[in-house]
Amino acid sequence: MEHVLFIQKVKKDKKEDYIKYHKNCFPGVLKVLKDSGIEREIIWIEGETLIIYAMAEDFKKSMEGLKNKKEFNKWIELMTPLLAEIQDYSKDGEIKRLEKVFDLEEQLENR
Q: Is pLDDT above 70 for 34?
């Protein structure tokens, strides 16, 4: 299972809208995320920084599948004006992941 972490920035004046949309996410978006292979997604916010965690068997494959889903593209269209910094979800784009430098479980398994 892959664990992916990445960062985005929300516009200061759009933060409440961003939170509201995510607390009431469209059912179609939830379904296509799960159907794509995303097992878990969690978003934390600190100031205007969004910290996004996703878990999937094959994250890149899951994202490729989402790029062709109208529900996901409508969601991205809705989110884009709210974000000061957005990951590249385009057909040829790729999410810039944070580098993992420590994983307790992996360390314990390798001992």
A: yes
